[in-house]
Amino acid sequence: MSREPGEPRLLIYSQDGLGLGHLRRTTLLASEFLAARPDGSVLTICDSPVGQFFSRTPGHDYLKLPSIRKLGPGDWSPVSLASPFSDVRTLREATILSAATSFDPDVFLVDHMPHGAMGELVPTLEAFDGSSVRKVLGLRDILDAPATVRRRWSLEGAFEAVERYFDEVLVYGSRHVFDVAVQYKWPAAIASRLSYCGYVCSSTSTSPPEAVRRRYLGEADDGQLIVAMAGGGADAYALFDTLVRSVPQVMAERRLAVVIVTGPFLPDSDRLRLRQLAEGLPITLLPSVADSVSYLAAADLVVGMAGYNTTAEILGLGARALLIPRAGPSAEQQIRANSFAERSWVHTLAPHLLSPESLAVAISRALEAQTLPPADLPDLRGRQRAAARLLEGTRLGSDRSQPELVV
């Protein structure tokens, strides 16, 4: 594949199953990369069932793989195809290898899984081994409970894959919040490759928050807006159902409007039940919004789960938030919610305590609490730092100065 003179190329692998978090984060990094080098090209290889869900920047395109989902440790299945998983895996592996070698990137950013789903990246990593392609692993800081991650990475050979194939590991977080090397006991040989970028988030909105508030509260200034989001929404029904049932109790104390962004993966049957339950209440249900940042910025309170992107964007906006983390099977969200609540960045309600009554009380307390000044928040320049590091790995680098990484 021929390239334009001076064209830096970034290849991204993002395996997202039935969520949107990894795709959202890598899309932000691609946009930042191209903002610094508009003459560049970014190709994202992904398998989200909703395909190109987020709007792309000129210079960025997607190659969709057949979608798969993880049923349990080492157990995967196709989402749509009736073919055996082994056939789908072979197809995905060959597609990735062909696209990666044809694209001829300067930098290969692998998101979250060092050797891909069921090792599907190994042939591509082998093809790039010894070449000029810089191989970078990108990780959110909290993956799961430390003991679980250590066991899985040891059994699956992930530590060995990092040592053999990757030049650098970018951590999208802060070592002061969660020390990856210590918590997950990274071997010294690869711990030195870790660099902390800060949290990756977007604080850019395409419409003013005031317009969102007027849409749901009208011109009166005595109402409060609650916005509820839970990423793709595949497992968010219990939270949304409880929120709808809590609204009458909260309305007894204040004038209120509630917007629930269900996410594209909430089953239609669940969405219909929520709509029926919300009849007669000041609740608007939306499957998705084009500009989630403007909704978060407009809210007097954000109610959500504790996924990485939701929490990072909440912190980036300085929004007041009440988080109800996912109960399982991963401990990731509970660790994040508890860690952030300990620092007074968010309010939280444990999932086993969730009920309409407890949620109504938690919402009222959160609405009355003070928000934190920006100086008390963590490092939120992860998007800029990570993109700068990726640009340094290209043959031409960046024309724009960027903040330094924390090693």
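The record above closes out task 2.4. Task 2.5 opens with a second protein, given below.
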Amino acid sequence: MILRYKRVLLKLSGEALMGDQGFGIDPEVLQDIAQEVKEVHALGVEVAIVIGGGNIFRGITASNYGVDRVTADYMGMLATVMNGLALQGAMEKEGVMTRLQTAIEMHQVAEPYIRRRAIRHLEKGRVVIFAGGNGNPFFTTDTTASLRAVEIGAEVILKATKVDGVYSADPMLDQEAVMLPRLTYLDVLQQGLKVMDSTAISLCMDNKLPIIVFNLTVRGNIKRVLIGEELGTVVQGG
């Protein structure tokens, strides 16, 4: 089997862990994700993961209700650590050695983020989960994903969503919305498409790092992307 990519960064939203629940973590969804990652890891792919915290706490939303934005963002970062611990537990239950690194130091539960150590873990066949955002308020986990991917030398960002790819409009609201299989970074920025935030897209553009947006809810899709099947939306240079 020929793999298109050797080292990848998988971006998971916190909402991906909720399943059909309105809040928190669905154990079945968590197990499914862990099993999917195990399958691609067994192929020899080096996998790093950035995880969000929106299923527990979303900083920018809380700031709209009177919580100081900086405080709210730090609370959101802590939510990502909780998700990271849950995912680490699910991965290791599947027999995959995993390391959780956080941008905010909390030695009792995770390693601090150290770039060279993260790369060494990947080289040794461990899955690395990055939590705590990038340690600073006002940045999303999309930006963290772009930053970490560039730092560790990932060849692609796999942006896992609940839809098949990027659409011209919200497919839930507009029946005429069509999926866009290929986009440039400038397309995303100029059309305001909701792929990742503008800071994250700009960082990928500056470093020529492709993004593949695909549906995580379909079993086997991560593997299909890695073996080169045409799936989802690919964002790269023109």
